[in-house]
Amino acid sequence: ALGDLARIYRKQFDIPVVGITGSNGKTTTKDMTAAVLSTRYKVLATPGNQNTRLGVPLTVLNLNDEYEVAVIEMGISEHRGLTYLCEIADPNIGVITNIGPTHLEFLGSVEGVAAAKGELLEYLDESSMAILNFDDLLLPKERAKGRLLGFGIEKSSQFRGEGFVLDREGCGHFSLQGQQFDLHIPGRHNVYNALAATVVGDALDVPLSDAAQALQAFQLTKWRSYVVEKEGVRVYNDAYNANPASMKAALQSLKEIDVKRCRIAVLGDMLELGEGSKEAHFELGRNAQLFGINRLVAVGKFSEDIAAGALEQGLSPKCIHAFPDRKSIAALLKEVLREGDMVLVKGSRGIALENVVKELGF
Q1: Long-range contacts of range 149-153, CB-CB < 8 Å, 24 or more positions apart?
Q2: In terms of DSSP bridges, do strands 171-176 and 162-166 run parallel, antiparallel, or are they unpaired?
Q3: CA distances (Å), 191 to each of 32, 78, 207, 212, 342, in order?
Q4: Which helix (H) or strand (E) holds 183?
Q5: How many CA atoms lie within 13 A of 115 on its CB side?
Q6: Distance of alpha carbon 165 from alpha carbon 293, whole angstroms
Q7: What is the C-alpha to C-alpha distance for residues 275 and 106, in angstroms, rounded to an integer?
Q8: I want to staple 234 with a disulfide (CB 3.0 to 4.6 A). Which of 1, 95, 97, 342 is the partner?
C-alpha cells in the first residue's frame, strides 16, 4: 500500500530522479552524489540507507515543490525487487556502482546478482541515462537502452580517473578532464564512488570544479571507512556491513595506508551468503594474510573458517584469534594494541561490531 501511494505521488513531480544501486558503495555514492548536486540544486536524498521496499517509498513521499532533483538509493536481495523499486521511484538516471557476491542466499550466484541489478537498466527507457562502472566486467552494459556513460580507473571510459594515486593515508587523488580531485577519505573503492557522483553531476550541468570542491570536503558517516585516532592508535571503523567484495576492498585499503607498527583486522561474519558461506569465510581469512594483516581477530559463527584460511595462507597461529561472539574482543585489543597500530573493524550488520569500537573508547 505504501508503495502504491508513493508510485502515484511520484507522478506529480517532473524532476531528475537518480536511482543508485550496486553490490557495494550505494550509500556513500548516494551521499557523494547529493553533495555534488547540492552545489547547484535543492536535493532530496535517501536518509541513511533507507533503500528497501519501505525506505524507497518513504523517501519519495518526502518530495515537495522545493526539490529540484532526487537521489534515491535502491537495495534489494531478490529478483524483481529492483523493478518494484524502480516503478515507485521512476528514475530517469540510473547508476550501478559494481557487481559482487552479495545476498547469494537469495540471488544464487554473482551472475544472479548481475541479473538482479540489471533490472535498473531494463526499466530505464531510451530517453534515460545509465551510468556504469566500466572497470566492472560483470555489469551488463548491453542492457542499457538510452545514453550510456562510463567511469573507472583502469578501462577506457568517458570519465576515467587519470593519474590515480593513493597518499600515505590511503586517500585517492586523480584528475578528470583536466580537473584535479583530492579526496580526504581512504580507499580505492571511494574513488569509484566519487567518480560515479561526478558523472551524475556532469550529466546535470554541475561543473567539474564544483564537484571536485564538494568531494574534497566530503566526510563519510560513522561506521563506513571512518578513521579515528586516540593515543597513537587508529581505528578504521567500517563496521556497518560486509560481503566478500567489500571485505576485500577494506583489507586493500588498510594495506595501502601507511601504518607504523601493526595492521590488525577484526572481521565478523558475512551474512546471507547461503551454501557458499564456509568457503567465503575461509577465503576471507586467506585474503587477510595476503593483504598483510599482522594480527587477525575473527568473530561469529564462521570465525573458525576465517581463522583456518589465514592459518593455511601462513599467518602465525599466535596472531590468530577466533571468537563465537564479540564479548571478549575489546579486552583482547586493549591488551595487544600499541602506539602506531591500526585496527580495521568490519562485519555484517547482524554482528554489530561498532560496539567493539565503542568499548575501546573511540
Answers
A1: 149/199, 149/203, 151/192, 151/195, 151/196, 151/198, 151/199, 152/192, 152/195, 153/188, 153/191, 153/192, 153/195
A2: antiparallel
A3: 11, 28, 18, 12, 22
A4: strand 179-186
A5: 11
A6: 22
A7: 11
A8: 342
Cell digits for 297?
A: 581477530
Q: Amino acid identity, residue 173?
A: H
Among candidate residues 291, 303, 240, 294, the one with its CA nearest the CA of residue 267: 303
Q: Give residue 104's pLDDT.
A: 65
Q: Please provide the DSSP assignment of 265-283 as one string.
A: EEEE---S-GGGHHHHHHH
Q: What is the pLDDT of residue 272?
A: 84
CA angle at 238 for the pair 236 and 239, rounded to the nearest 5°: 120
Q: How many residues does the chain have?
A: 362
Measured in degrees and rounded to the nearest 5, phi and psi for residue 222 equal -60, 150
**Tell me: the pLDDT tens digits for 117-140?**
889 999 999 999 999 999 998 888
| Mean pLDDT of the 172-199 span | 96
The three grid cell numbers given for residue 210, joined into one nine-digit string: 564544483
State the chain's mean pLDDT as an integer. Answer: 93
- pLDDT in the model for residue 202: 98
Cβ atoms of 297 and 333 closer than 8 Å: yes
Could you tell me the pLDDT band of residue 206, with boundaries at 50, 70 and 90? very high
Tell me the whole-structure pTM to 2 decimals: 0.81
Residue type, 279: E
Helix (H) or strand (E) holding 116: helix 110-117
- Dihedral of CA 206/207/210/212: which sign? positive
